[in-house]
Amino acid sequence: MPPYSSAPVRSVPSGSPGALSASAKRTIAGLSLWWPASPLAFVLSTVVGLSSRDRDPFWEVASAVLLWSGIGGVVVAPSLGLLIAFRLRQRPARRRFAIMGAVSLVVCALALLFWEFAMECAPGQAC
Asked: At 7, is the pLDDT very low, low, confident or very high (cuts 50, 70, 90)?
């Protein structure tokens, strides 16, 4: 009798979650969490920027870092996450990052539309 089993050895398919390394899982999780945290970064950036009346350089830098962190969360997290999910062949992550990108695109389009309407001159006023 042979010392090993005659059952075939099955490898884990590349698209299953078991095939991912720990760093890839952490990267996907981090990008997935960065996106919903970006509105909080925008709000904190506004609060810090408006509450800093004495124009302390520290609070100006903190406001700028929070602002760019929010912008990065809206733009960079979905695109980089989608790229990584395509590379690792992760269908649920691809779906999640595609939805995140679509929502980000709609929010950015609405923000630009609001900005355009906000910059319009009132009737009778010279701009």
From this structure: low
